[in-house]
Amino acid sequence: MIAQKKLEFEHSLLIIDDEVEITKSLYRQFRRKYNVHIATSADEALPIMEKERIQVVLSDQRMPGMTGIDFFAKIKDKYPDALKLILTGYSDIEAVIGAINEGQIFRYLTKPWNNVELEVAINEAFEKYELITNNRRLMNQLQEANLFLEKKVAERTKELEKSNVKLTTLNIEKNKYVGIVAHDLRNPIGLALSFSDLIISDHLSLSQAEQLRFLKIINEKCSFALNLIEGFLDTSKIESGILDLNFKAYNYCKFVQECIEHNKLFAQKKSQEIIFHCECPKAMLVFDKNKMEQVLNNLISNAIKYSHSNKKIWVNILQKDNNIVTQVKDEGQGIPKDELESIFRVFETGTVKATNKEKSTGLGLAIVKKIIEVHHGSIALESTPNIGSVFTFTLPII
Q1: Three-state SS at 2
Q2: How far apart are the C-alpha atoms of 345 and 109, rounded to whole Å?
Q3: For residues 192 and 221, is the Cβ–Cβ distance under 8 A?
Q4: Least buried of 45, 306, 320, 346, by fewest C-beta within 10 Å?
Q5: Where are the domains of the chain?
Q6: Cβ–Cβ < 8 Å for 15, 36
């Protein structure tokens, strides 16, 4: 019968009294409202407390072995939320009031008790238990929410600190690049301006050959300045992630061959030979044609620029796993070992000079690396001074 009641109700009441008739009477009074458990002594009540989820305990004060107050003192730390009520005679009132002041007892009722008063006290005990547990649950939820918010604030603060550091670094880099561009632009623009002023002011005294020579110088300086500006803009677009790419599928070997044809004229001026070899003539790759032209033209023109006359340049294409590998190899001057790591950085020109005084903006290889990375590829360099360099980049087969 008690087991059935335990299944029907949410709240459990433990009644402790050594008088069987009293426990039967109290059981009958509360069985329709709570799961009621009966014990005739404190020792008998302890296993029930351990086994069942007891919210309210009603105990007689005077029992053999252990008094009700002593029992409540014993279970206080282990079951702090359980509400404790005691039935007592007038002779024990002083001890009971002391236990109430110490927080061991919620309420007491004197014998003989009033059933209505007892039921009200039991109901209030369960209500207070719910209030205590709900408040604890809400406090735990609030604490968890605070911890979560503190964690999020800490994470966000860390992100903002990183962003601030990054922005500061980018601002320093921007100022550095702007300063370099302004410095590098001043010389060619100044020369172009000087020669144009000379042609304008002295055009009557200058021969046609002299004017043509000055115009060629102006054209050369303006071309260098334009290349510098375009390179800087390309770098800025790639860094900011706003580079507009037009991906299409192309036969890669045919595409590379076309780029080589565009550069052959410059190689022929230095009596250089470009040798092309492709192991995968049918390979199709998806890429932005203009940007990849920029990559190949830069690598091939650098091989031409930094190699002496009568040297050979090789462009080899092969397939490795799911990647197409492109090699641009030359017999040029090579690059010192201590400059290999910085060669792909912006405005790093290195100590090796072009063999025919060709100009360099210091942006080409930095842009090449960024374009290849945008295409989900990678680039590497192997170089030996006085022997030559090999630029190798990979592009995934999509």
Answers
A1: helix
A2: 87
A3: yes
A4: 320
A5: 2-113, 160-240, 247-396
A6: yes
Token duo for residue 5: 């009641």
Higher pLDDT, 178 or 359: 178
Q: What are the start-end ranges of the H helices in 103-207?
A: 115-202
- CA-to-CA distance for 154 and 330, rounded, in angstroms? 53
Which pLDDT score is estimated for 357?
56
Could you tell me the pLDDT band of residue 102, with boundaries at 50, 70 and 90? low
Which stretch of 71-75, 242-246, 349-353, 376-380 has the lowest confidence by average pLDDT? 349-353
- Which residue type, as a one-letter code, is found at position 249? A
Question: 273-278 and 284-288 as β-strands: parallel, antiparallel, unpaired?
Answer: unpaired
Decide if pLDDT at 226 tops 80. no
Q: How confident is the model at residue 113 (pLDDT cuts 50, 70, 90)?
A: confident
Topology of domain 160-240, CATH? Helix Hairpins (1.10.287)
β-strand 107-110 against 83-88: which pairing, if any? parallel
User: pLDDT tens for residues 283-298?
Assistant: 999 998 888 888 898 8
Strand partners, 277: 316
- Residue 268's Cβ-side half-sphere holds a number of Cα atoms within 13 Å equal to 6
User: Cα–Cα distance between 296 and 293 in angstroms, integer?
Assistant: 5
pLDDT digits (tens, 9 = 90+) for 140-187: 898 888 999 889 888 888 888 888 888 887 677 666 656 555 655 666
Interacting residues of 142 by C-beta distance below 8 A, sequence separation 6+? none
| CA–CA gap between residue 46 and residue 52 (Å, rounded) | 10
Q: How far is the C-alpha of 220 from the C-alpha of 357, rounded, in Å? A: 13
Phi, psi of 395 (to 5 degrees): -130, 135
pLDDT at position 5 is 41
Q: Which residues contact 108 (CB under 8 A, 6 or more apart)?
A: 85, 86, 87, 88, 93, 96, 97, 100
Q: Among candidates 141, 134, 125, which has minimal Cα distance to 83?
A: 125
CATH number belonging to domain 2-113: 3.40.50.2300
Q: Which two tokens stand for residue 389?
A: 């360099």
CA distances in angstroms from 203 to 43, 127, 197, 209, 214, listed in the order given = 122, 107, 10, 11, 11
Mutual angle of helices 115-202 and 208-240, in 10-degree steps: 180
What is the rounded distance in angstroms from the CA atom of residue 149 to the CA atom of residue 77? 32
**CATH classification of 247-396 is 3.30.565.10, yes or no?**
yes
